[in-house]
Design a protein that fits this description.
single chain, alpha+beta, 4-stranded mixed β-sheet, 3-stranded antiparallel β-sheet, 10 helices, 33% helix
Length: 419
């Protein structure tokens, strides 16, 4: 990894690092509180993982990459966990098959919580006792581990949403009011001159290696939609026959629509009375036409853009436009646009770009297993920018590069148009 110097607690502030560590770790457990143990152990599809697995894997990360090389007299909590909770690090060794994570009835949630408590106590002791010469290395790894756990906190929410949606009960993850959004402002366009610009992370804090190196890129003049596409606008695409018109779709996307027999976004369903419901983390709700359309694949986003006489932005265009934009967010679901002007860039839906996920000029992977974190996935995926209502605070920045295959739609992914 190539994180820049962490700007959270300072090098000589072990208590500050311990406080940040405890805050992040407690939030993961808090996200599991509304769930039953049965909820936490189930896996609804290959792309998703059980909540129990997320809780154990993020603990495995600290045990494997920090405690094992740095703790005096290291011994694993359980030797089999090295295989069970390894995600994709081939440099570490064997892995339990991803598609079979939901078959791990053992360890149970109680033992996973005990695993977390054991590693947390040992991490706290290491923070107090690490030699001065190793502190910089420890804090760099600790920063990465905490950012990694926060990524899994977002996955916990999106994965459990997909799981709960499989039940005819359509249960809510969290019981809370779901107020109707105010009417969205009319779509407007903001013009950008483009030119030679710099792309990539340029701050003083942590970033992931795929955000580096910062480099120059020419961007032609372009316009960006001021807000995200709404459910009402996407419904108009459906009613106009968008899922039945092959000329709107990429060839692979048209095959995908036909093979999956799709005619609407993930989590939409007809209510039996001529209207629509949308499954949310707050349960099944009447489709709010003013909120952003979400859980859309790149195929769907691109087809809608063609139908609307526009296109998807490149990631360079998106980053140029996002510089200095304030972060706001929805609460477990994307919120409606409110003020006009450029908004909903962060905290509502990840936004598909037309850019393939590829290394920046000069990118190099780090040595060892941690070099597998991002670089080996730079193939057959597309970049999404911004952040979503499920993204933890601190992960919304203009240079952050999320990435998924073109058919993925269980994340909170939406559409911002460009032209």
């Amino acid at each position: 990894m190539h994180p820049t110097q962490p700007t959270h607690p300072t090098h000589d502030d072990a208590r500050g690092w311990r406080g940040r560590y405890e805050t992040v770790r407690k939030r993961s457990l808090m996200l599991a509180e509304p769930l039953t143990d049965e909820d936490c152990g189930a896996q609804s599809m290959t792309d998703a993982s059980p909540v129990k697995w997320h809780l154990a894997h993020t603990t495995w990360f600290f045990e494997t990459f920090i405690l094992e090389p740095m703790e005096a007299g290291f011994a694993p909590f359980h030797p089999a966990f090295r295989v069970l909770f390894n995600s994709y690090y081939n440099g570490i060794g064997e892995k339990h098959p991803r598609a079979r994570r939901g078959l791990l009835t053992r360890p149970g949630m109680a033992q996973v919580r005990a695993y977390r408590a054991d590693v947390d106590a040992r991490m706290a002791a290491l923070l107090e006792a690490v030699p001065a010469g190793a502190r910089a290395q420890l804090e760099s790894l600790l920063a990465l581990g905490l950012e990694h756990e926060q990524q899994h906190q977002e996955l916990m929410l999106t994965d459990v949403k997909h799981l709960l949606a499989q039940s005819a009960l359509l249960p809510a993850y969290f019981e809370a009011p779901f107020a109707a959004a105010a009417p969205a402002p009319a779509q407007s366009w903001l013009a950008f001159d483009g030119g030679l610009t710099e792309i990539g992370y340029d701050g003083a804090g942590f970033c992931f290696d795929n955000e580096l190196p910062r480099h120059r890129q020419f961007v032609a003049p372009f316009a960006l939609a001021a807000r995200l596409v709404t459910n009402g606008e996407y419904l108009a695409f459906i009613e106009a026959g968008g899922y039945r018109e092959p000329s709107l779709w990429l060839a692979e996307g048209w095959d995908w629509v036909r093979n999956e027999s799709l005619d609407c976004p993930l989590y939409w369903q007809r209510d039996g009375q001529g209207g629509w419901l949308e499954f949310t983390l707050l349960g099944a709700q009447p489709l709010d036409l003013q909120r952003p359309a979400t859980h859309l694949s790149l195929f769907e986003a691109d087809a809608y853009a063609h139908w609307a006489g526009a296109r998807l932005p490149t990631e360079a265009e998106w980053e140029l436009a996002a510089a200095g934009v304030a972060v706001d967010r929805g609460d477990l679901h994307p919120a409606g646009a409110r003020r006009g002007g450029l908004e909903q860039m962060f905290g509502h839906c990840w936004q598909w770009t037309s850019s393939s996920y590829a290394p920046y000029p000069g990118y190099a992977t780090a040595p060892g297993a941690l070099g597998e974190y991002n670089g080996k996935f730079m193939l057959n995926q597309y970049v999404l920018r911004g952040s979503s209502c499920a993204t933890p605070a601190g992960h919304a920045r203009a240079s952050y590069r999320n990435f998924f295959p073109a058919g993925a739609r269980w994340q909170f992914s939406g559409i911002r148009l460009a032209r």
